[in-house]
Specification:
5-stranded antiparallel beta sheet; Immunoglobulin-like; 2 domains; 342 residues
């Protein structure tokens, strides 16, 4: 008399991993198993029982910048019908950009050796019991360093990476990091480029010339269409002296808006950093304090802003260098009252 035997079981593994389910039927005779029938069935795991997703600062595709404070939210959802219990979630962070000393996580414990953050079911209720179709969340905060060493061309186009493991599910998350674009704006009276003249301390109604220097640093990615702009006050004007002369064609002044613009062009990764040369420019201005500026240290040029298009992240980068006043903090010869208008 014939019949059908049904066998059920449970297999675990990675998504898309193939498993072989093997069944044998037979009888024991005199302590020996006599095989009557054997069958093998190959199956593939088509979906995980847990779905893992992540946001940084509320954005799944967040592009980070040096110095950022990052708020990580990791979500895990039970896609099955059966409840899951006593889970743990491990998040392993990988990047020299991370400042691990700033990591904060009320629910997790950090292991410095392999830069792993462990969330245990004893502290996270959803890891202790996760019903079918239920979602849980863990979170932590960490800052990126303002700067980190550039040791080789492999440091170009940086990313921050983290791998998340929970039960049989594993997900890798990779986020791009912007370059760091810096403008250094400095002012001098004593220097050897042009040779300045006029009263020091500056006097109301009399003109003094100063040299303004712009220096650029570009760190981690190639940046295109870089430009710098700053505004001159009404009682300042350009003398026409620019160094080097090759930059004169890229340097412009709008007398109506009082805006200076230097079209720098394209910058390669690490230009101006670790001894690698970068474009710089010096120009001379003439400043004539007004009577109501006596006893003050007025600006001779406003805040400098640099901008450019990051070729790795496709984002527009901006940063600023502070305005320069008659105190000239970078000129060691101008001290105390020498910067106060008389």
């Amino acid at each position: 008399e014939g019949g059908r035997i049904e066998i059920s079981g449970r297999l675990t593994g990675e998504v898309s991993e193939e498993k072989v389910f093997q069944a044998k039927i037979g009888s024991w005779q005199s302590g020996e198993f006599i095989l009557l029938k054997e069958t093998n069935k190959g199956i593939a795991i088509v979906k995980p029982s847990l779905y893992v997703s992540q946001q940084i600062n509320g954005n799944p595709q967040y592009v980070a910048s040096p110095g950022d404070l990052l708020h990580y939210q990791i979500f895990f959802k039970n896609l099955g019908d059966e409840s899951l219990s006593n889970l743990s979630l491990i998040c392993k962070l990988e990047s020299k950009a991370f400042d691990f000393e700033t990591l904060r996580s009320p629910q997790g414990s950090f292991t410095a050796g392999d830069n792993s953050l462990i969330f245990d079911w004893k502290k996270v209720p959803e890891l202790q019991f996760l019903d079918g179709d239920q979602e849980g969340e863990v979170e932590f905060w960490i800052e990126l360093k303002d700067e980190w060493p550039i040791e080789s061309s492999s440091d170009k186009n940086p990313v921050i990476k983290n791998n998340v493991y929970v039960s049989q599910a594993k997900e890798e998350f990779v986020n791009k990091v912007n370059s760091k674009l810096v403008i250094l704006q400095k002012g001098y009276f004593e220097e050897e480029v042009f040779g300045n003249s006029g009263p020091i301390p500056p006097r109301a109604g009399e003109s003094t010339t100063y040299t303004i220097m712009w220096q650029i640093k570009n760190f981690y990615n190639d940046v295109n269409n870089v430009k710098i702009k700053a505004n001159l006050p009404r009682n300042a004007e350009l003398t026409g002296n620019i160094f080097p002369d090759t930059e004169s064609s890229k340097f412009a002044f709008d007398s109506q808006s009082r805006e200076i613009v230097w079209q720098v062009g394209d910058l390669k990764m690490s230009q101006g950093v670790s001894g690698t040369p970068a474009p710089n420019i010096s120009f001379q201005i003439k400043f004539t304090p007004t009577g109501d500026q006596r006893g003050q240290t007025p600006e001779i040029i406003g805040t400098a802003e640099i901008s450019g298009e990051d070729q790795w992240t496709k984002e527009t980068l901006k940063s600023q260098g502070p305005a320069v006043t008659t105190l000239l903090p970078d000129d060691a010869t101008i001290t105390g009252e020498k910067g106060i208008v008389q």
